[in-house]
Amino acid sequence: MAGQLRVHLGAAPGVGKTYKMLEEGHRRRERGTDVVVGYVETHGREQTEAMIKDLEVLPRRTVHYRGTTFTEMDVDAVIARGAEVVLVDELAHTNVPGSRNAKRWQDIEELLDAGMTVMTTVNVQHLESINDIVRQITGVPQRETVPDEVVRRADAIELVDMAPEAIRRRMAHGNIYKPEKIDAALGNYFRVGNLTALRELALLWLADKVDDELENYRAAQGISDTWEARERVLVALTGGPEGETLIRRAARLASRSRGPQPTDLLAVHVARNDGLSSGGSHANLVAQRTLVEDLGGTYHQVVGNDIPKALLAFAKGVNATELVLGVSRRGRLQSLFSPGVGVTTTNGAGSMDVHLVTHAQARKGRALPKVRNALSANRRVAGFLLATIGIAVLTVLLAQLREQISLDSDVLLYLAAVVIVALVGGLWPALVAALLGTVALNYYFAPPIHRITIAAWENILALAVFLIVAVAVSATVDRAARRTREAASAQAEAETLSTLAGNVLRGAQPLPALLNQLRETFNFNGATLLQRRPDAGPSPDLQHDRDAWHVVESVGRTLFAPGEGDAEVQVDETVSLALCGHPLAAEDRRVVQAFANQAVVALRQQELSEQAAAAGPLAEVDRMRTALLSAVSHDLRTPLASAKAAVGGLRAPGIEFSPEDQAELLASVEESLDRLTRLVDNLLDMSRLQAGALAMHPQPTSIAETVAIALDEIGSPAKDIEVHLPEEFLEVHGDPVLIERVLVNLLRNALRYSPDDSPPMIMVSAHAGEVETKVIDRGPGIPIEKWEDVFLPFQRLGDRDNGTGVGLGLALSRGLAEAMGGSLTPDVTPGGGLTMVMTLLQSGPLPETELETQSKQAFVGDPQAGAS
User: Fold this and answer.
1) Is pLDDT above 80 for 431?
2) How far apart are CA 716 and CA 714, in angstroms?
3) Omega before 448 cis (within 30°)?
4) Which of 749, 837, 855, 757 is nearest to 798 (CA)?
């Protein structure tokens, strides 16, 4: 049995999540639980170190990488120890290359599979789904991330929360960072606004997780009553002109909520499949849906015969707390015969608050009601009652008027009664009415009276025609009703599929949107798309074999095999759609099959996108190889040819060179070999950079010293370069050697294109926690639309010459800058020319995991794995 995972989620570094984890470990040990420390990083914090002393700490595993020694959690040792509870810090940590797993959360999954309970920590900024939001807020990239699903699968998530002011006090007291970094931290990452935003992100993310758990619990326990744990305002739309009024009123109700959680705004339209129109139009619904989504709400559509029942079922399914309805458009006379949707829904709402909103169309009446086009059981019963009682009453009345009304008139009146019964109850009640009417005419009105015989042939003909016409009319009315019902069902299906297409087009994730719309439309508890595993062999009971299937996507309750649900739709031999909640009605199977087919199309598109993404790098490698061969054929051969010609001249027999000529030839050889060395170094570095294996040693680096070293590297051509440095001492976070490489490439490129009377200029400035180094030239410049082309490997703009190189300088420079967490971008030089701007983070406090990475790791790993 797999173990349990408990996650301590922190809003920011320093809130005390590691301390809380250790406290929990102590509590469990005091209760007799076997607790060990698999890996905990104290960062030199005395309080944290004191919490570890009384706990058993397992030895770490030593890893050697590129001449440096690192320590990581020893997974084998932890499993061999076999403790009940293991404390493992830093869930998002990236392991040193060469470890058995790339990420620590993968190590933890092995411990869980071994049956251990694992307690771990993670900060909200390391969750994959909000990583870009955190970077936008704080301006600091988070390279170590963990998939949200890993944290969502945890059996327990505890939010370790602290007010921003309290975190800043802890920082000021030296409880988070070392004293020399406190001022910079308080002025950058640990600003009140940043901490408040991170805290809100953590609370909202956890609220969604808790909301999912609540819905799963309600579904598992079969609870349909509304639990007001979170305010949800639901507005019912018919497509009528009053829809916008209802939506805006519902939005105001949602905005006025003062609950602990943000209020959700939902809109729902019930599409009837019994042929009764709601009196609205599809165009109105489209406009109202747009309005709902513009106001931050969500639009839903369900199908149901009984509108109040379907509306209440959906409201309880989404746990709505308030329901907004429009006052009925029925006139007073219509209200006498039917109470309307609003009254019926209010009577069945239970604990849900119902708001009946008046509008301009209220009580103005509707168009004449259409004839019912679905023969319900109630209508059939009413038809039979009318056939028996109505024919009896008509017979009594006509018997009183036997002397005043002829037999022909009696036949017409009975025929009218049969038509009325057919309109009310359909074919079979009308046939009963026709037979009863024939017997009544024969016995009471056709001579001889009170006998089942007919004396005159014309009376026999009249009764026969009556029976034939009555049966024909009944059949026609019944057939028309059935055709109308089928048309109404088709219209409901079309509206559902139209809404489905709209959700897929609007949604960034087609599969979840499809399955969620299917679940809501047909009121299922869960919908799961399953795909048969390629290695699954023939199974006698494939529908119940979990090992033969894997879950592609699921909403609501998750099923793991087609046979586990209440219904299933087999799309093909490898894909099945499993549904739970209730059996699938036969009339709904066609629409559900369309959902399933569309889900498979989305699945195939997703697979093709993944294949295209995998093929993209291969195509790029092929392009790079072709470009490299083209470059080698010219640029690498040129310095070789120059050096060989000079050496050949020196060795030529019979030619004596003066010392000056010999010195010039040797200088030419040296220059050619130096150029060749630079080209080869650039090629090797570019290859290492793309492979993620470029050695990097980030540290606080003086930008002024690095500029001076770069100018010395260039030599005599650098004497004319203008240098403008700020008076204050600036340090950047990066590798000094790589920064120098970038500056040398940029300065040489600027010297190559600068006019003799306008030398390049280098300027350094700092703002917003970043240091910008600008290399400015007054050359011909580059059109804006061509800016990105100069960063492509083996690409050059302008004419070729022997000193141009293979076109790697700027491409390599941008790669090096980005590897250090910075950027390299072009800009326009006022008055003409090009400015290259290298931006690096100013040396100061980094987010928690990056500080750990800085102190422990000296490598660049896979960028997608998040290694620092």
Assistant:
1) yes
2) 7
3) yes
4) 749
Calculate mean pLDDT across residues 491-517. 62
DSSP letters, 770-804, are: EEEEEEEE-SS---GGGGGGGGSTT---S---TTS
Q: What is the pLDDT of residues 36-83, one digit of tens each?
A: 999 998 877 888 888 888 889 999 988 888 778 888 999 999 999 999
Question: Across residues 327-338, what is the average pLDDT?
Answer: 61
Q: How far is CA 41 from CA 22, 143, 541, 695, 853, in A?
A: 11, 18, 50, 25, 11
Residues 625, 626, 632, CA angle at the centre, nearest 5°? 85
SS (H, E, C) 649-678: HHHCCCCCCCHHHHHHHHHHHHHHHHHHHH
Q: What integer best gives the mean pLDDT of the chain? A: 77
Tens of pLDDT, residue by residue over 520-560, are 888 888 889 888 887 765 554 555 677 788 888 888 888 88
At position 8, the amino acid (one-letter code) is: H
Q: What is the DSSP letter of 97?
A: T
| Amino acid present at 771 | V
Burial category of 127 from C-beta neighbours within 10 Å (exposed 0-12, middle 13-18, buried 19 and up): buried
Q: Which helix (H) or strand (E) holds 743?
A: helix 736-753
Residue 769 or 495, more confident: 769
Q: Hey, is 197 helix, strand or coil?
A: helix
Distance CA 108, CA 786 (A): 48
**For residue 39, what are the β-bridge partners?**
88
Spatial distance between the Cα atoms of 592 and 609, rounded to a whole number of angstroms? 26
- C-alpha dihedral (677, 678, 679, 683), degrees to nearest 10: 100
Identify which of 155, 206, 144 has the alpha carbon closest to the alpha carbon of residue 13: 144
Backbone region of residue 535 per phi and psi (left: phi > 0; alpha: psi in -120 to 50; beta: other values): alpha
Q: What does the angle CA 691 – CA 694 – CA 700 come to, to the nearest 5 degrees?
A: 140
Query: What span, in angstroms and rounded, lies between the C-alpha atoms of 764 and 756?
Result: 23
- Local confidence band at 867 (pLDDT 50, 70, 90 cut-offs): very low
- Note whether 787 and 814 are within 8 A (CB): no
Count the alpha carbons within 13 Å of 469 in the hemisphere toward its beta carbon. 17
Q: What is the DSSP string of 395-461?
A: HHHHHHTTTTS-HHHHHHHHHHHHHHHHHHH-HHHHHHHHHHHHHHIIIIISSSTTSS---SHHHHH
CA 158, 164, 165, 169 torsion-angle sign: positive
Instruction: State residue 257's pLDDT score.
Output: 56
Look at residue 792 in the predicted model and tell me its pLDDT: 72
Dist. CA 396–CA 336, nearest whole Å: 30
Higher pLDDT, 366 or 318: 318
Rounded Cα distance, 122 and 863, in Å:
20
- Please enumerate in sequence order all residues whose Cβ is within 8 A of that of 3, keeping only pairs 6 or more positions apart, or say none: 111, 112, 113, 114, 115, 116, 117, 118
Whether residue 779 contacts residue 834, with contact meaning beta carbons closer than 8 Å, is answered with yes
Of all residues in the chain, the percent with pLDDT exceeding 70 is: 75
Identity of the amino acid at 7:
V
- Joined tokens for residue 384: 């039979």
| Backbone φ, ψ for residue 135 (5° rounding) | -65, -40
- For tokens 């102190």, the residue is 855
Rounded CA gap, 354 and 340, in Å? 15
Token reading at 736: 């000094």
Q: How, if at all, do strands 322-326 and 353-357 pair?
A: parallel
For residue 454, CA distances in Å to 444, 460, 644 come to 11, 6, 131
Domains and CATH numbers, the chain: 5-221 (3.40.50.300), 232-357 (3.40.50.620), 377-482 (no CATH), 622-681 (1.10.287), 695-844 (3.30.565.10)
**Helix/strand number for the chain, H first, E second:** 27, 24
Burial code (b: 16+ CB inside 10 Å, e: under 16) for 258-268 equals: eeebebbbbbb
